[in-house]
Amino acid sequence: MRYNGVTVRVPAKVNLQLAVGPLADDGYHELTTVFQAISLFDDVSVRRGKVGTGITLTISGATSHGVPSDASNLAYKAAQIFINRFGISPDLEIALKKEIPVAGGMAGGSADAAGVIVAIDSLFELQLSRDEMEKIGSELGSDVPFGISGGIAIGRGRGDQITPALTKGQYYWVLAMSGQGLSTPAVYQECDRLRAGMSIARPQSSDALMQALRAGDAVSVGKALSNDLQAAACSLRPALRLILDIGSEYGALGSIVSGSGPTVAFLVADEEKALDLTVALSSSGVVGDIARAYGPVPGARVVATS
Ligand code: ATP
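The joint structure predicted for all components is written out below.
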């Protein structure tokens, strides 16, 4: 059946582990990361537009402020790849409804690109495999393939070579967001500055974390959370240290800066503990918006057609 429009729901991610290797000659770092997709979503709609209108992009939702609506948007770039490579109609109306924080270390822009890829595949009946879609995604950004796959996965290379992980259990998160984002390249630069003169090993996945995930043992997952970018994010935004401390004071199983930050993710035992920590964080006065989420959830998937 030929649809006129498709809506895809796509999740945010937290990094349970982010191991950053030495700076390579090409300016990038080899990564080993463990992603978990969580229940904070952007909705991405793609509709066939009127002939001659080209790509139009509209952005709404709680976290839409400051998101570019021009060709620099990753969703726009994703559509452009399909127009050039698959010869689909260039007249597309893309609508993003954003709930994922912008520049928050939760891969919001990548999620939107992943959403466009899955939406266009469905709308134009391209029948691409998940692997093919993830390959296109990796051209747009290292977090895009995981937006397509979802669940829990190990990312290698630049984080774009995804291997799904077999895990048990549901994990509850409290997310302390910041009104002002952090630039991912700036955080990597600060990381390099802090490590200057040190010898840095190749990144490896943490056995303790993988074992805890296989057992569904949230207490051990909490202890095994690690992020090599955390010191750099805290150096650029010292208030993050105060926020991380509140988590340990109020019984979080683990507290971590998500990706390049500045979102801080607290792992808690259950929904009740999540509510307790939310109250403590909001009365602390040092946190902006707070969200609660659980994971793992699936990657980008079609939720409506018209
Ligand atoms: P990551 O965790 O992958 O490093 P992030 O969550 O920190 O990313 P994003 O929300 O993806 O950061 O946004 C980073 C920048 O990308 C924004 O400041 C914005 O200018 C630009 N951008 C491009 N497309 C989008 C989009 N669809 N949504 C949000 N930001 C976008």
